[in-house]
Amino acid sequence: MQPNPNFIGLGKDFWAHVRSLSQTVGYTKRSSSQGPGQIKVPTLQELMTGLASIGLSASHLVLDSKPTAYAQLLLDYFAYRAAVLNDTVEKNLMDAARAEQMFERLSSQLKPSLPFTMNKQSGEKKKISYLTAMVNMLIEANANGISFDHDPRELTTITRGGKPLRTLARRFDGAFPSAVNPIAVWEVKEYYYTTTFGSRVADGVYETLLDGMELEELREHENISVAHLLIVDAHYTWWTCGKAYLCRMIDMLHMGYVGEILFGAEIESRLPLIVQEWVKLYQARAQSPKLV
Length: 292
What we know:
By secondary structure, the protein is α/β, with parallel strands linked by helices. It has 2 domains: 5-92, no CATH class; 96-291, no CATH class. It has helices at 12-25, 44-53, 69-92, 96-110, 130-142, 199-222, 235-241, 243-255, 266-287, and strands spanning 62-63, 66-67, 157-160, 163-167, 174-176, 184-190, 227-233, 260-263. The radius of gyration is 21 Å and the shape is globular. The two termini are 28 Å apart.
């Protein structure tokens, strides 16, 4: 999923409104007998009441009983966020059985050479990390023979003149072509066997935010861009238990802290196109080494 251009480049004050209002109005509708509630679209009155409930002014949201342009932009964004999550993202999120079927099909088709990473579960839940394995095989199949680091065990470092310019705080799950001066880095969040939405899962979202803020600083102060891809899956974890965090992901996407987010089955159609763009950048860099 790529960001909607209508909501790119908005000020941080806009996202402060989104966060405050999401907190006060709520991210989701109440669950019913039909299942978990969907993502909520607040009304203008709810926006005003939400700000008032935390002692903030809402006068800038209404003029002559109608929403101001700023308020309408907020309403449009909340409607977009709900629509994309309710209508598209949920359908792409897979459970373990569906992910295993997709993994078996892709591995048979692509015949990857990279080893499969195992998850950190034990007993019957000890399985191949299906999402990570599929990400690696799809990148390998579309990398035009270019090697990449599918399991970096070092911090990502950007250099200039042979010296470290920035070293990021966390290790990523993958880097193309390597963790030193990468064209792209990615994070994989798969939780197929998680039965509760604990702090470890929530922290994963905030870790991505930290990474995005470091890459934003690099881009703004050194004019160096590194593509940042977030890949997530597990319907129960993210949809049944963690829809508020899905909302936060969509927010991060439009704030520019990730370049793209792939949800579950979306990797099959989208990842090959993304990798082909990385290959073009790699080839351009090889022809002009001074660019790095």
